[in-house]
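Dear H.,

Thanks for agreeing to be a second pair of eyes. The structure we're designing against is below in token form, covering all 235 positions.
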């Protein structure tokens, strides 16, 4: 089930957002629940386990930015979409990894399109691979993989919480990942573009400061792939 929170202290605006989101989700095959909140404090007393948050920024007491910061303390992967009448907070929105920033008055078609893109993003987060060994199988979500490393006949999957090893070919896993934001940057490495912080002619630096090799023969294509990824994320 897709759980959506709508937080706005203006009744008319909140009802409008709920109406548009409900109308859009009715056209999908998703099971969903929309919960309206009249202020940030009310939302803070909820479980904070929503998949998508629509937040007004200018609210009494807690602002939408403050609410988003509290959400991020317990939920790093949820999608936060700001809806506001002010342009001044766009850089604050980046600080909490907002998915989008919509200016009022609300354009219904734009809100629907952003919501559908958010649903696609959630769908990507649920994709996984299965690491099979003789004794057991491990389900690994793609969103948790920072990079994959080939060492002799073993595949090392470096995730945000552990390193999982099993016998598998890097070329085969590359095929499994071809529709996702992964790039084979070296004969021994495949990197998840969402964890890339920066790169130079020799190394890719990840957001956790780890460095992995990049082949000079793949550098140009990697640069293009990463730019396309950033452009896609910014839309």
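And this is the sequence the design step returned. I haven't edited it by hand at all.
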């Amino acid at each position: 089930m897709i759980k959506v929170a709508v937080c706005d202290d203006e009744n008319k605006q909140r009802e409008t957002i709920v109406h548009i989101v409900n109308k859009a989700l009715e056209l999908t095959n998703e099971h969903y629940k929309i919960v309206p909140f009249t202020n940030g404090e009310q939302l803070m007393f909820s479980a904070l386990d929503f998949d998508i948050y629509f937040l007004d920024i200018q609210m009494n007491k807690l602002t939408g930015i403050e609410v988003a910061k509290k959400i991020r303390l317990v939920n790093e992967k949820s999608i936060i979409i700001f809806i506001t009448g002010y342009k001044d907070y766009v850089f604050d929105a980046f600080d909490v990894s907002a998915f989008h920033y919509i200016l009022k008055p609300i354009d219904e078609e734009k809100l629907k399109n952003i919501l559908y893109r958010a649903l696609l993003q959630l769908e990507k987060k649920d994709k996984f691979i299965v690491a099979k060994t003789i004794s057991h199988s491990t389900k690994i979500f793609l969103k948790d993989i920072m990079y994959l490393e080939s060492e002799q006949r073993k595949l090392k999957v470096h995730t945000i919480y552990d390193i999982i090893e099993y016998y598998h070919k890097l070329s085969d896993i590359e095929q499994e990942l071809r529709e996702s934001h992964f790039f084979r940057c070296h004969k021994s490495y495949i990197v998840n573009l969402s964890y890339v912080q920066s790169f130079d002619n020799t190394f890719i630096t990840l957001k956790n400061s780890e460095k992995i090799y990049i082949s000079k023969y793949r550098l140009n294509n990697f640069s293009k792939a990463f730019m396309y990824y950033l452009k896609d994320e910014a839309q």
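Two observations from my side: The CA atoms of residues 193 and 229 lie 7 Å apart. Residues 128-234 form a domain with the OB fold (Dihydrolipoamide Acetyltransferase, E2P) fold (CATH 2.40.50.1020).

Warmly,
E.
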